[in-house]
């Protein structure tokens, strides 16, 4: 057991959570927000040169591209070092091949370059229970063969962290290879092939294999609500108390895109296209629901407009007391919003281009957008000193 981590997770006092969305190469946007947060907190730490976000956040969780960032942060990497990785990932992982272009008969991208990069930065043999992981970590994935979301985490009190072999044949969470479960979390259908992981060892010696895909096809592409449940529900083992002065949850997105196709265009779309946009709509709905629930139950200084009917929920509160302090940072790719707030003036066509999750040519432009938004949105006052 990682004794140092166990002591940290069980220590009294307020706890700080960081949730990171999925979104492919658009994780570059997330990194710009994190670099701004890191700079603010490092300046307050008294030791800015050595400060890492793993020093501040007690639990970091991510989905897909967010799981890569989460794992590296929990490993003690600086944001600048992770940005270097994304430059490598963009050039090597999202390298288009003509015969794979559509991702219909084979996945669009081979998994090996991504696996090699993860093993290089996280280690080939590093497990979820490794002492190299400095803070609480959740990797959100989806087990395809059972249809169940799997939030894999490293809480020593969790029932599957190190289960009793006499009562369970399940593979212990602590023994899962970190690079493998992060690769599983990034295995977006059609982009990468699923990841196969041994999940149980039966008494007769038979090994049970699970087939895992991107956590984004669960309700938790935005993993913030799942991360809150992980921290507070007794079954997961963390069992941290709720309260606006006890839990701080920071959630960082990879861009919000609004699609509005006219009636005539929809009538002429192929059924496969309709299915694809329907799936994307489900992911957006799940994100919107998580955002609504968290703003409803929390104290927040970063309220987002949910829709024209319920607004930003400033006048609504679930229960008599706020259950946590909540911050949400994201890039809103809306032509009118961009003009009014950042004077960037992106056209609808340009916004559509930046929405791609696998176009490495967008890295520099996405980084610039994220940097501008981070300067506008992230403020030191958002982080109460009572959580330091």
Explain what you see:
- Strands 1, 2, 3, 4, 5, 6, 7, 9 and 10 form a nine-stranded mixed β-sheet that branches.
- A hairpin with a 5-residue loop joins strand 5 and strand 6 (207-214).
- Helix 2 packs antiparallel against helix 5, helix 2 packs across helix 13 and helix 6 (112-122) packs across helix 7 (178-185).
- This protein has helices at residues 3-10, 27-45, 53-56, 65-74, 79-92, 112-122, 178-185, 224-232, 263-267, 271-297, 335-341, 348-354, 363-377, and strands at 15-20, 59-63, 136-143, 148-153, 195-201, 207-214, 247-252, 256-257, 298-300, 324-329, 332-333.
- It has 13 helices and eleven strands.
- 37% of the residues lie in helices and 15% in strands.
- With 388 residues, the chain is of the alpha/beta class.
Entry keywords:
globular; 388 residues; two-stranded parallel ribbon; alpha/beta; 11 strands
Task: Compose a concise summary of this entry.
With 388 residues, this protein is of the alpha/beta class. It has helices spanning 3-10, 27-45, 53-56, 65-74, 79-92, 112-122, 178-185, 224-232, 263-267, 271-297, 335-341, 348-354, 363-377; strands spanning 15-20, 59-63, 136-143, 148-153, 195-201, 207-214, 247-252, 256-257, 298-300, 324-329, 332-333. A hairpin with a 5-residue loop joins strand 5 and strand 6.
Topology:
Layout: H1 3-10, E1 15-20, H2 27-45, H3 53-56, E2 59-63, H4 65-74, H5 79-92, H6 112-122, E3 136-143, E4 148-153, H7 178-185, E5 195-201, E6 207-214, H8 224-232, E7 247-252, E8 256-257, H9 263-267, H10 271-297, E9 298-300, E10 324-329, E11 332-333, H11 335-341, H12 348-354, H13 363-377
Parallel strand pairs: 1-2, 1-7, 2-3, 7-10, 8-11, 9-10
Antiparallel strand pairs: 3-4, 3-6, 5-6
């Amino acid at each position: 057991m990682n004794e140092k981590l166990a002591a940290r997770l069980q220590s009294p006092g307020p706890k700080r959570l960081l949730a990171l969305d999925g979104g492919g190469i658009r994780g570059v946007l997330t990194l710009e927000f994190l670099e701004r947060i890191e700079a603010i907190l490092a300046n307050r730490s008294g030791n800015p040169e050595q400060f890492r976000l793993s020093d501040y956040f007690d639990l970091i969780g991510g989905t897909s591209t967010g799981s890569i960032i989460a794992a590296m942060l929990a490993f003690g990497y600086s944001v600048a070092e992770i940005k270097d990785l994304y430059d490598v990932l963009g050039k090597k992982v999202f390298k288009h091949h003509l015969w794979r272009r559509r991702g219909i008969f084979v996945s669009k991208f081979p998994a090996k370059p991504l696996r090699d990069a993860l093993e290089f930065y996280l280690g080939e043999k590093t497990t979820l229970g490794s002492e190299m992981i400095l803070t609480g970590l959740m990797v959100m994935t989806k087990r395809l063969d059972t249809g169940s979301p799997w939030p894999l985490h490293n809480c020593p009190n969790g029932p599957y962290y190190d289960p009793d072999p006499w009562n369970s044949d399940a593979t212990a969470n602590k023994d899962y290879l970190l690079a493998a479960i992060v690769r599983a979390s990034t295995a977006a259908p059609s982009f990468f092939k699923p990841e196969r992981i041994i999940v149980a060892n039966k008494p007769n010696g038979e090994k049970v294999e699970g087939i895992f895909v991107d956590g984004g096809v669960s309700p938790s592409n935005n993993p913030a609500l799942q991360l809150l449940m992980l921290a507070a529900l007794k079954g997961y083992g963390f069992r941290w108390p709720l309260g606006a002065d006890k839990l701080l949850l920071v959630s960082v997105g990879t861009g919000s895109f609004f699609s509005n196709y006219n009636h005539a265009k929809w009538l002429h779309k192929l059924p496969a296209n309709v299915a694809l946009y329907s799936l994307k709509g489900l992911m957006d709905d799940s994100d919107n629901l998580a955002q609504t629930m968290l703003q409803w139950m929390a104290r927040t200084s970063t309220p987002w407009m949910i829709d024209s009917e319920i607004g930003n929920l400033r006048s609504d509160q679930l229960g008599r007391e706020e259950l946590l302090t909540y911050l949400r940072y994201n890039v809103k790719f809306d032509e009118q919003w961009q003009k009014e707030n950042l004077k960037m003036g992106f056209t609808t066509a340009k916004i559509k281009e930046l929405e791609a999750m696998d176009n490495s040519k967008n890295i520099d432009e996405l980084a610039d957008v994220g940097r501008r938004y981070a300067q506008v949105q992230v403020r030191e006052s958002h982080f109460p000193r009572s959580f330091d």
